[in-house]
Amino acid sequence: MPDEPAPIERLPAGRSTVFELAPGVRLEPFPDGSALLLSEESEESLSLNLTGALLCTFADGTHSLDDAHREVQGAFQGSEVAIQVLAEFLLELADRGLLLLNPR
Amino acid sequence: MTGSPRPLHLRRILDLWVRLPSLPERPEVALGLDHLLSGFEGSHEPSGRRVLQVGVRERPEGWQVGFRETHPGAGDGREEDPGVAWSASFTPLRASELEHRIVAEALERAAGRLFIHGAGIVVGGGTWVVSGPSGSGKTTLAMGLWSRGLSILGDDVCPIDAVSLRPEALPRALHTDGTYPPELLNALPAPPPEMPEGHRPFPGPAPMAPPLLAGLIVPVIDGPEEGAIEPLSQAEVVHHLVRQLIRTKGFDFPHAVRTMAQVGRTMTGARVRASTVDGMLSRVLQLMGRA
Description:
The complex is a heterodimer of chains A (104) and B (291). By secondary structure, chain A is an alpha+beta fold. Chain A has helices at 7-10, 50-56, 65-75, 83-95; strands spanning 18-21, 25-29, 35-39, 44-48, 60-64, 99-102. Chain A contains 4 helices and 6 strands; from the N terminus they run αββββαβααβ. Chain A is globular, with a radius of gyration of 13 Å. Chain B is α+β, with helices and mostly antiparallel strands. Chain B has helices at 27-36, 95-109, 138-147, 182-187, 234-243, 253-264, 277-287; strands at residues 10-13, 16-19, 41-43, 51-59, 62-70, 85-86, 113-123, 126-131, 151-154, 157-161, 174-175, 199-200, 213-221, 229-232, 268-274. In chain B, the strands form 3 sheets. In chain B, strands 7, 8, 9, 10, 13, 14 and 15 form a 7-stranded mixed β-sheet that branches. In chain B, strands 3-1-2-4-5-6 form a 6-stranded mixed β-sheet, covered by helices on one side. The longest helix of chain B has 15 residues, at 95-109.
């Protein structure tokens, strides 16, 4: 049985995939750096840690995964942020209907 | 029945004066109901403009409770609701069942509030909410914290004013029909003889103007990691609070989330695991800065 492709390969345009919040979804940031993703339509809320919250601030339909990874890595200087982990997270949010993934 | 106090006709639950049924043929039920609601302000005359009339009738299929809201002295032409809304029947007629339906109806009719399924505890200049599913130890923890000198707003429901964001008291009698440590039960006010079984009087008085929410405790009794404190981010606090909101009629999710997000901006929170009540209490008091 073939191995499942790496998360980044499952994105529509790999590293160049741009992402944005799905319609009706908004990001609610908190002073401690965490955030909530809220879908008013499905009444779903998802709490995000610091990395997830920061990643979602780039969910504007113009930043690519590569752009966002650079920004997140810059914010966490001294600790490696794996782009595959970010790609996996984007796929999970898209599966939940909270994020749209598009080729650039 | 001798020497028993006459039940009060009215109890104020949030912004409603609730006129209780007199039940002349079932005085023990009326008195039991009065004891269950004794934490709420009582009167023989309403001083507010909204009065909820509670009726009880016996039907072949069982007992029914009916509600009708009136506006005495409103002066704006409003007299009363078009009729009485009777609830589904139940049997036998029990004070605890009546209390449950009356409080639920009052919450449905309370304007401008959200209701967190949790106990409210005042700790210094802030209110903490102990919240979790039924059986998670909310009442036990509330009793324990009260026995350590803290004031409680209620053990089950914590109302939040959606404008001021302030919590309010909902001083219902405590449900103690589970298994509780005898030392905690013994510390509570003794139940009067007419108090329905499995309840204790609300250990008041509840603070009149509780401070804003400052913290959330999610207790996990019998957790595998004794005494572990797992801090929650503010997003996790708000996420938890939103999931624990009671969905009354007209519940508006976007509005509720916006309100709870405001509330959560100044809160801290933790999931606390312990295998014993004492262990839980000591960890929670430590977290609250009261150890």
